[in-house]
Model the fold of this input.
Amino acid sequence: MKKIEIPLEENLGHGHLACAGCGAAISMRLTLKALGEKTIMVFPASCWSIVPGSWPYSSFRITAIHAGFVTAGATASGVRAALDVRGDLETQVAVWAGDGGTFDIGLQALSGAAERNEDFIYICNDNEGYMNTGTQRSSATPLLAWTTTTPVMQPKENPKKDIMAIMADHHIPYAATATIAYPEDLIRKLQKAKGIRGTRFIHLFSPCPPGWKMASEQTIKISRLAVRSRIFPLYEIENGRNYTIQEESRIVPVKEYLKLQGRFGHLTEKDIETTQKNVDDTWERLQRRARC
Done:
């Protein structure tokens, strides 16, 4: 595979308000390097409604549009249509939404836009919960995880929603998973997405130190362990059916990933075995899709 150079250009400036060790802050920095300054990015309600700073100041060097929680897909569709009317085919339209605004509250607008194959890049910053409002459960929250609405005595009973399969079923041109632990892979996928017309979806794994009860200096390590444990495999889907998996040869047990996060501190050995089986089953299902 061709070596990817990480652009030197910085489109996320100093002074943002992200927590120490925020995976999303690193993700945003890399994303804006890949997309470039000529980008209009739509932000539904999320941490990134606050992180860039309050008006009239902003750490962004791009145009940002704040949208309602449910409307990211619709707003981005409208921005793209307005640019097309003006004859501006150069400006890239993108969405940056959390898992709450993607898996849950904003899914209807995203699905509608994807069904129409609207021309924008949708980036889901997945920190596996409603972190901006105090760590509540979302449908992206992992099986048996603690949140304020799934406390230790009654942790989340359902596996994480398979958002990539949902997007693949819309037959969009491109969808991919990515994480900051593999920055060249992230940059490559975003640059590839830029060269495609239609709806493109990037599922971006994003550790949240306060929400995950983890040490802020462990963000990159936990991101890497997520891939190596197959909690969050790296892969691409083209046209809803052609799967390419970026396999990690250094596989580790799921326990190595779980033990660094307080949100899993209540798990018993049996719980860990259940989680491992769920991960193994999901991995086998992904491999079957890739062989089809």
